[in-house]
């Protein structure tokens, strides 16, 4: 699969987010030099999932966000289950201890 330089940056940086952690579309955008929507589009095309863990990206509010191009439905349930298996908990549709488990990227 041919991917853009931007997609490659997104996937590479996302590999820094460990099990039990999450990041946001905006946080990822800040370190790769793009916008949150562009990050979401790159993740929707992720051919390396789950090795490149796009399920660990949530909205800025700590809510689940999208997954595989969906914002409701089976894929969102799948994303929640993947995160819960990694130790991320949800209450009322939001990550518990969001700021504590939010990955902090080092800006260059």
Notes on the protein architecture:
The strands form 2 sheets. A two-stranded parallel ribbon has the order 1-2. It is globular. It has a single domain (5-97), classed as Winged helix-like DNA-binding domain superfamily/Winged helix DNA-binding domain (Arc Repressor Mutant, subunit A), CATH 1.10.10.10. A hairpin with a 2-residue loop joins β3 (90-91) and β4 (94-95). By secondary structure, it is mostly helical. It has helices spanning 5-14, 25-32, 36-44, 74-85, 98-101, and strands at residues 23-24, 57-58, 90-91, 94-95. It is 40% helix and 7% strand.
Q: Bin the strand percentage.
A: 5-15%
Portion in helices: 25-40%
Quickly count the helices: 5
CATH superfamily: Winged helix-like DNA-binding domain superfamily/Winged helix DNA-binding domain
Helix/strand order, N-terminal first: HEHHEHEEH
- Terminal Cα span: 29 Å
Main β-sheet: number of strands, strand sense, barrel status?
Answer: 2 strands, parallel
CATH class: Mainly Alpha
- Report strand order across the widest sheet: 1-2
| Poorly predicted runs | none
Domains counted in the coordinates: how many? 1
Q: Please, what is the average pLDDT?
A: 94
Number of strands: 4
Which second-level CATH architecture applies? Orthogonal Bundle
Name the shape in a single word: globular
CATH fold type: Arc Repressor Mutant, subunit A
Task: Round the Cα radius of gyration to an integer and report it.
Answer: 13 Å
Structural category is mainly alpha
